[in-house]
Amino acid sequence: MRLGLVLAEIGRHSDITVTEQELAQAVRQEAMRYGAQAQQVFEAYSKREDLQAQLRAPIYEEKVVDLILSKAEVTDEPVSKEKLFEEDELPEGYGGA
């Protein structure tokens, strides 16, 4: 849930939106999954905001992640095998009883 809130805030701050064209494409793709019932599915998604929101959310999140990745600066840092397998300290609230 936290991740969703963080992505939503980054998207809001960066003015990311899902266009009607992107949503229409997602509706078409979803409808095509239902074969002979595609037209009924297409009509349902076209009329119901809740169904549209189910398609809009992953598109939005993908656009936010793409934005983050486009701005990320990645550097390689050599790490020994021993360092890699060292036990990390767990954050407070995690771990044993």
Give a verbal description of the structure:
- With 97 residues, the protein is mostly helical.
- The chain has one domain (2-70): Trigger factor, domain 2 (Orthogonal Bundle), CATH 1.10.3120.
- It has five helices and no strands.
- The chain has helices at residues 2-13, 20-32, 38-47, 49-71, 81-84.
- Helix 2 packs across helix 4 and helix 3 (38-47) packs across helix 4.
- It starts with a helix and ends in a 13-residue tail after the last helix.
- The model has no long low-confidence stretch (mean pLDDT 89).
Number of helices: 5
Order of helices and strands: HHHHH
Q: Largest sheet, described in full?
A: none
**Mean of the pLDDT scores?**
89
What low-confidence regions span 5 or more consecutive residues with pLDDT below 50?
Answer: none
**Oligomeric category:** single chain
Distance between the termini: 25 Å
**Helix content, binned percent:** 55-70%
Integer count of domains: 1
Shape label: elongated
CATH homologous superfamily caption: Trigger factor, C-terminal domain
Nearest-angstrom radius of gyration?
20 Å
CATH topology: Trigger factor, domain 2
Class of secondary structure makeup: mainly alpha
CATH class: Mainly Alpha
Give the secondary structure arrangement, pairings included.
Layout: H1 2-13, H2 20-32, H3 38-47, H4 49-71, H5 81-84
Short description:
This protein is an all-alpha fold and 97 residues long. The protein is built from five helices and no strands. It has helices spanning 2-13, 20-32, 38-47, 49-71, 81-84.
